[in-house]
Amino acid sequence: MAKILSQDEIDALLTTVSSGDQQDSEESVDDEKLRSIVAYDFKHPNRVSKDQIRTLENMHDNFAGHYGSTLSAVLRSIVDVDLVSVDQITYSEFIMSLVTPSCTYTLKAPPLDGLSLIDFNPTLTFSLIDRMFGGHGKILESERELTGIERSTLGRMVSKLYRDLEKAWEHIVNVEIEQISFDNNPQFIQIVPPGETVVVVSFQVKMFQATGLLTICYPYVALEPVITKLSAQNWIDATKKKSEGKDRSVNERNLQLISADVSAELSREAIKMRDFLSLRKGDVIPCGKRINEPMVVSVNEKRKYLAHPGLSGKHRAVQIIEECDQRAKES
């Protein structure tokens, strides 16, 4: 015979089920909270603000576009350079992320303090060199150091990188990049202490048959002199000012190439040819104009201004008083 549950047993069973559901919901809420929490290392705090990171992203995104065009012209092939990330990590973490052997350049860029690094991934390096020697930019599987000729060939593209990087920085500050050294083993490069904060800018370089990474490392001590200028508002203002200055210089250069004939007409009267042929020194020709009436100044035989005649030093001159109205121009 089947056992029939009492009302108390049914209530107890429902209470147990509801408490279990509540516990599961609380656990799911706790899991969501844990997933939304970001770990913060108090030993290595973020020293560069998000606003400053965004400015560095904008600046190096412009650099990526310019350097992609430069590589395309040098290699005679389509090359895309895309900004991947801008991160701040410790110097030891950055060095451990590099492969060996690699192509790492140490440079200084006054007024930035200290030294910075630029690293070419071996895959990217050998693809660029293969393309420079007439190949298709294929990936070289062997791990070896560059020969002297290969280093010289890669140096051409690195020098162009310096120029494009200087142009990217000029909206913030004018830098002059100077190469200090070249190393195949980044583990031996010590520009700052291992625990020092560095800003690492990573690019992905895409060619026809290969893809590689290009990395720029700025220690925080190098950015510190200009860290206050790395703000979005300062970036926008500097960009506008640079654009206005460039437009002004272009306009001034264009205006300097323009030549125009300017003439001032004191009077225009009709006389008979007999009277004109009989003119002698001291004769007077009536102008039919009052002494205070303005004269017309023409530019390329078109009436443009009204002016008063006079002297500037020992030279005859006119003083512009207003622009001719439309009726005067048409007449």
Series of H and E elements? HHEHEEHHEEEHHEHEEEH
Number of domains: 2
Shape: elongated
Based on CA atoms alone, the radius of gyration comes out at: 38 Å
Largest sheet properties: 6 strands, antiparallel
Strand content: 15-25%
CATH architectural designation of the largest domain? 3-Layer(aba) Sandwich
How many beta-strand segments? 10
Label the structural class.
alpha+beta
User: What's the CATH topology name of the largest domain?
Assistant: Chemotaxis protein chec
List the quaternary state of the chains: single chain
Give start-end ranges of low-pLDDT stretches.
Answer: 327-331
CATH class of the largest domain: Alpha Beta
Name the helicity range.
40-55%
Give the strand order of the largest sheet, numbering strands 1, 2, ... along the chain.
1-5-6-3-2-4
Distance between the termini: 123 Å
Write a brief structural summary.
The chain has 331 residues and is an alpha+beta fold.
Describe the protein.
The chain has two domains: about 50-240, CheC-like (Chemotaxis protein chec, 3-Layer(aba) Sandwich); about 260-275 and about 290-330, no CATH class. The chain has nine helices and ten strands. It has helices at about 5-35, 50-75, 90-95, 120-130, 150-170, 220-225, 230-255, 275, 325-330; strands at about 80-90, 105-110, 115-120, 180-185, 195-205, 210-220, 260-265, 295-300, 300-310, 315-325. A hairpin with a 4-residue loop joins strand 5 (about 195-205) and strand 6. Helix 2 (about 50-75) crosses helix 5 (about 150-170). The termini are far apart.
